[in-house]
Amino acid sequence: MDPQSHRWKMLSYATTEMSDPDQMRVRHFLESPAPMLQSLYLCPSHFGDSRVNFAGGVAKGLRHLTLRSANLWQCSVLLDGLETLRLVFVEAGPAEVLSIFFRSPTLRRLDFWDVVWDQSRATASALLPSLDLVANSLEEVSLATDPRLITLILSQLSMPSCKSLELATNFAEFGDEFLGPILNDGLAQFIPRIREALRLGGVARFLVGVGPSRYREKSSLEIEGFRLSFRWSGITTESLTEWIRQLIAKLDFPLELEMNLSTPDRPTVEALDEWNELNVTKLTILVARPEPASMENAVLVLDCLGDVLVDQDGGHSWNFPKLRELDVCSTQFDLSRLLNMLNKRYLPDAYVRDKEKLGISIQTPPRIDLRVRNTTEARGATIIAAIEKHWGVISLQKRTLDT
């Protein structure tokens, strides 16, 4: 069989099971020299732990490689001179991972999705602190993997040209003690860069995604020329807010936060007061599925915004004290609960004056811009009119999901 491999410019190969004779033919096929090959998708799981000399070791033009369900050492012949590399369900040791950047100094994009930290080859990590790696060409990095591997790569590899850094892991498998190293060691090289951009007047947007703890929504911090996004699943709201609080403290800048509450569960609702010390100015409540429990939790979020917090001197304040924008998006939502929240959050002027004459502090929150999307209510028109005229409301927008 002549595979015509010398003509290949792009190849996608994936299979799971085959007979021994077929495996021999496939091995011959995949080991054929491919000097013109530029892009390769490879899922060689049926080869087990055996090494395959892909492209006969002759694929010097290869620039774009995706490996899925493989051991990195099996495919190491392909790692020279790459511009983009995506590893999915790949086993790798720390030294093997870092060697990528020696062999592909022109790498522009790196994606790690569920890369498994191979403990059998982790002993090489003892030598890693002495390495000084610089990836001058690396612009986009996505690491959805073991938090130890995230910290290793970010702490050992300088990325002066990085424009986008995306991180994700499920701490339920590892424990949230790995949160600290990612911030203190992994992000250390990026903190001065973000801080300087903020101090020079750069526009920043910090969007925090909060949903059920088992699957957190993505959060992101964007400044001009750089975007950091992270998704920390399997941790409590308390751990998430503390991590964000420490990140903001390192930046030493009063960032405003936008929060997306997507189908919040009960533990998330019960921990909402954890966000009061952070400068949350915009809140979006989204319930995609009108299930009774989800709707009840969304209503509890509104109740939380209306709850009066009384200090030991009788002073009044409210949850999310800096909130200026509220976006409610849900079907079958009782708008009367929204009006009730406004009445509790924004007390009548006469009441406030009477309290202040008695020396009681009333920290009235700023007036609010409201957006109401996809809500239905029998008395909707009447309640909407009352909300629109409420003194605590600056503006009210009524929208459907597709606008």
Structure explained in plain terms:
By secondary structure, the protein is an alpha/beta fold. It contains eleven helices and 21 strands. The chain has a 15-stranded mixed β-sheet, with helices on one face. It has a two-stranded parallel sheet with strand order 5-7. Strand 1, helix 1 and strand 2 (39-43) form a beta-alpha-beta unit. The chain is elongated and about 85 Å long.
SSE blueprint and pairings:
Blueprint lengths: L9 E5 L5 H11 L8 E5 L20 E5 L15 E5 L2 E2 L1 H10 L5 E5 L2 E2 L15 E2 L5 E5 L2 H10 E2 L5 E7 L8 H8 L4 H9 L5 E6 L8 E5 L2 E8 L3 H15 L5 E6 L3 H5 L9 E8 L4 H15 L1 E3 L5 E3 L6 E6 L4 H11 L3 H9 L10 E6 L6 H10 L3 E7 L4
Parallel strand pairs: 1-2, 2-3, 3-4, 4-6, 5-7, 6-9, 8-10, 9-11, 11-14, 12-15, 15-16, 16-19, 19-20, 20-21
Antiparallel strand pairs: 12-13, 13-14, 17-18
Helix pairs in contact: 3-4, 8-9, 9-11
Quick structural gist:
The chain is α/β, with parallel strands linked by helices. Helices cover 28% and strands 26% of the residues. The chain starts with 9 loop residues before the first strand and ends with a strand.
